[in-house]
Amino acid sequence: AQLRAIALATERKLLKSVSLFDVYEGGQIPEDKRSMAFTVEFVPGDEPFEADAVERFVKKILKNLKNELDIDLRS
Q1: With 45 labelled, which of 29, 34, 54, 73 sits at a CA distance of 20 to 30 A?
Q2: Rounded to 5 degrees, what are φ and ψ at 56?
Q3: Cα within 13 Å of Cα(56), Cβ side
Q4: Residue pair 35/74 in contact by the 8 Å Cβ criterion
Q5: H or E element in which residue 17 lies
Q6: In DSSP terms, which residues pair with 72 in a beta bridge?
Q7: Mean pLDDT for each 10-residue chunk of the chain (75 residues)?
Q8: Hey, CA dihedral for 56, 40, 73, 11, is it positive or negative?
Q9: The pTM is what?
């Protein structure tokens, strides 16, 4: 819920939804961590936006998640 709230607060005007679709624990994930995957749906404003704009929005959301919750990002 915290991740969703932070993401939605980051891009209120353009972010339609944030949905958790996978949680993984174990394997190569440290015992006190979990891997979480989300689907993020954007809604364009007056004009459609390009892939680079979406990438900027996602980077901004990830930066805020890192700052607010000290998450570790995997690539």
Answers
A1: 73
A2: -65, -45
A3: 6
A4: yes
A5: strand 15-24
A6: none
A7: 88 84 86 86 77 86 90 74
A8: positive
A9: 0.75
